Amino acid sequence: MVNSGYEVRSFDPAVARWAAAAREAAIQLDTSERRHGGTWFVGVDVLPNAPDGSIDGVPMPFAKMHDTWHAAQVSIVYPHYPKRDADETEAAHLYRIKRDAAHMDGLLPEGRKKRRHLREPHGFIIGMALNEATASPLVVWEGSHLIMQSAFTKAFEGVAPRSYGDVDVTEVYHEARREVFESCARLEIPTVVGEAVILHRHLIHGVARWDGHAPEEGRMIAYFRPLIDPAAWLAL
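Below the sequence we write its predicted structure tokens.
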């Protein structure tokens, strides 16, 4: 993971058991609030897992990696993703199509001008597929975490970690992301139940447009993004 910024863990029966239990809980969720013309349910913090990551008594396979686990995101993509929302600009829609809505987590776009600040210093990202699908896989830019980490090290130079969120990093983020597109390989990560993907917190990633198949409930992936102290966030 050091150079690539991601790792795909091979099939593990414990991951498959957790995914099966999480899928049963996920299909009971109210997914009526969708984005992009009804083709994506964001599902942030909606999975009813326990603080130890377990779901309906089934242990979370990576529970020892963090002390307390938040409610997982359940990202569900539906056929024809991404359609354009009425309030979405053409540029934003095209970016989602052509660049897979590539982003780095934790830098939330705020206000009318979508300024970026570090609001959620994640430690890492773990994704586990809840069903078998070929449509809209996770996309990563291999090695992009090295470019982003270097850019933010410079941006936060001389800034106390507790004040990282006060720094507007919009231009730094956009410039570094452009470098990523120019120099890093774009890779699609297949959706396989029983496997898990672990992403570095600085890795640029996104979701591919719909081109394939998925069950009737849509392509489902559960993501955990535990928060850490900002002082540790810049460490590679």
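The longest strand covers residues 133-141.
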